[in-house]
Automatic annotation (TrEMBL):
<dbReference type="InterPro" id="IPR002220">
    <property type="entry name" value="DapA-like"/>
</dbReference>
<keyword id="KW-0963">Cytoplasm</keyword>
<dbReference type="InterPro" id="IPR020625">
    <property type="entry name" value="Schiff_base-form_aldolases_AS"/>
</dbReference>
<keyword id="KW-0457">Lysine biosynthesis</keyword>
<feature type="active site" description="Schiff-base intermediate with substrate">
    <location>
        <position position="161"/>
    </location>
</feature>
<feature type="active site" description="Proton donor/acceptor">
    <location>
        <position position="133"/>
    </location>
</feature>
<comment type="subunit">
    <text>Homotetramer; dimer of dimers.</text>
</comment>
<comment type="function">
    <text>Catalyzes the condensation of (S)-aspartate-beta-semialdehyde [(S)-ASA] and pyruvate to 4-hydroxy-tetrahydrodipicolinate (HTPA).</text>
</comment>
<dbReference type="InterPro" id="IPR005263">
    <property type="entry name" value="DapA"/>
</dbReference>
<feature type="site" description="Part of a proton relay during catalysis">
    <location>
        <position position="44"/>
    </location>
</feature>
<feature type="site" description="Part of a proton relay during catalysis">
    <location>
        <position position="107"/>
    </location>
</feature>
<dbReference type="GO" id="GO:0019877">
    <property type="term" value="P:diaminopimelate biosynthetic process"/>
</dbReference>
<dbReference type="GO" id="GO:0009089">
    <property type="term" value="P:lysine biosynthetic process via diaminopimelate"/>
</dbReference>
<feature type="binding site">
    <location>
        <position position="203"/>
    </location>
    <ligand>
        <name>pyruvate</name>
    </ligand>
</feature>
<dbReference type="GO" id="GO:0008840">
    <property type="term" value="F:4-hydroxy-tetrahydrodipicolinate synthase activity"/>
</dbReference>
<keyword id="KW-0220">Diaminopimelate biosynthesis</keyword>
<comment type="pathway">
    <text>Amino-acid biosynthesis; L-lysine biosynthesis via DAP pathway; (S)-tetrahydrodipicolinate from L-aspartate: step 3/4.</text>
</comment>
């Protein structure tokens, strides 16, 4: 259903901190032209915790409208409030979103049994296919492989974005969930290793600023051309790392503005703009990756 380079889309904002829908639609066109395989707005990289529900849905709606069926949209629909996750899933199903990206409940710290109940309730209340999102470093909640295996038995759960940073999880998840369950890396630096272990792709921060390169990397890996994939990955490795020199998405928004992909690098409080040392590091990584200003057709 989905594979390759899926961009964890940033949400561009004006200098005053409002959603910049003009730049947002331009980003969708950039990803279309660059060969990105799918777009995932309103995840962590989209600053979903700081947007209102209305803004959240407006962003996803704008991406769906601009994509216009040309590539799949995977909408961030997770919440630490199960009822809110259901509301978002139903709204996105009505918009024509291809699947939801459902992060584990953050701050609540639910048990594995509670996670089973949470995701079961979502799938029973909405027909939107769900891709689980495990990022314990952000949420304080780790979705364990055995639990994922049980969730994979639900018709509405189709895959997982695994961002624990632990490569052994990929093999464990494949053993628990079977060959048809979709496994996506959630850490760009480990994405190629995930592919070697049987993953289908990556939900990528780096793809925001290096869309064509991440698409080429994933295409090479999917084709089994590991030599080409390694060559691309070596060039991007400083960027994978540099984009996390500050809290995501602060560095990648700055990088996108530096390339001219968006008009302003401003994040929404409580995040603030990238400091000078961070800018120098990211600028150096962009240079090493040979990423110049984006020239629009």
């Amino acid at each position: 259903m989905f594979s390759g380079s899926i961009v964890a889309l940033i949400t561009p904002m004006t200098p005053s901190g409002e959603v910049d829908f003009v730049s947002l639609r331009r980003l969708v066109d950039y990803h279309m032209a660059a060969g990105t395989h799918a777009i995932a707005p309103m995840g962590t990289t989209g600053e979903s915790p700081t947007l209102s529900t209305a803004e959240h849905l407006d962003v996803v709606r704008a991406v769906v409208e601009q994509a216009d069926g040309r590539l799949p949209v995977i909408g961030g629909c997770g919440s630490n409030n199960t009822r809110q996750a259901i509301r978002l899933s139903r709204a996105m199903e009505d918009m024509g979103v291809a699947a939801g990206l459902s992060v584990t409940p953050y701050y609540n710290r639910p048990s594995q049994a509670a996670l089973l109940a949470h995701y079961t309730a979502i799938t029973e209340a909405s027909g939107l296919p769900q891709i689980l999102y495990n990022v314990p470093g952000r949420t304080g909640c780790d979705l364990l492989p055995d639990t994922v295996g049980r969730l994979a038995e639900l018709a509405g759960v189709i895959g997982i974005k695994e961002a624990s940073g632990r490569l052994e999880r990929v093999s464990q998840l494949r053993a628990c969930c079977g060959a048809d369950f979709l496994l996506f890396g959630g850490d760009d630096e480990l994405a190629l290793d995930v592919m070697r272990l049987g993953g289908q792709g990556v939900i990528s921060v780096t793809a925001n600023v290096a869309a064509a390169e991440m698409s080429a990397l994933m295409n090479a890996a999917l084709a089994g051309d590991w030599e080409q994939a390694e060559a691309i990955n070596r060039r991007l490795l400083p960027l994978h790392r540099g984009l996390f020199c500050d809290t995501n998405p602060v560095p990648v928004k700055w990088a996108c503005a530096e390339r001219g992909l968006i008009d302003s690098a401003v994040p929404r409080l409580p995040l603030i703009s990238l400091n000078h040392s961070g800018q120098e590091r990211v600028r150096g990584a962009l240079t090493e990756a040979n990423l110049r200003a984006w020239i629009q057709a």
